[in-house]
Amino acid sequence: MNHKKTYNCLAIDTPLGKVIIEGPISPEHLAGYEFHAGLKAFRPPHQQREALIEIAGLDEGRIIIARNKETIIGYVTYVYPDPMERWSQGNMENLLELGAIEVIADYRNCKIGKSLLKVSMMDDAMEDYIIITTEYYWHWDLKGTGLSVWDYRKVMEKMMNAGGLEYMATDDPEISSHPANCLMVRVGKRITMNSVQQFDKIRFQNRFMY
């Protein structure tokens, strides 16, 4: 599959200054920016920066960033699903996972997350993919936001909806382990019925639930 990537850019005004949302960006482009110390949800900031540079260099890897001047204050990643997860079982070349989205606390009410998703989907090549994200409540910053599990879930759903991702049912045991967990999906306009059926077989593996 030809993993074509077309760069897009959007500028938004926030109370903390102008923020540029751009991508997919190259590893070289990414390496030229500072990485805010507040981006530490998944690993220490310097390690996360290196991980993003590595993802940006993958054929299918996509990194969209939000930056204030030369400092990255948010990002979203798209990669193939982890080989250890069920979503990789079909070896679908046109299935990408929104693996991580993070915005520093200072900008959380500035619609940065929604803007990252909107810029992601500006690239016409995204119509050739099924995009998934798996949301688990134990990954959410409930303490930092002061939100309940259900309020946080609503925030996440609204943000994902901005990128065209919608809730889909699944019998995945990890997602089914708590009612707040969910699978969200965007099916590109050029996805064939064949690919949809292949994806449905991955979503539902217990024949009694299919």
From TrEMBL:
Protein name, UniProt field: GNAT family N-acetyltransferase
* Single Gene Ontology MF annotation: acetoin dehydrogenase (NAD+) activity
One GO process term, biological-process aspect: acetoin catabolic process
Q: Which InterPro entries match?
A: AcuA, Acyl_CoA_acyltransferase, GNAT_dom
Q: Give every N-acetyltransferase domain span.
A: 46-118
Short name of one Pfam family: Acetyltransf_1
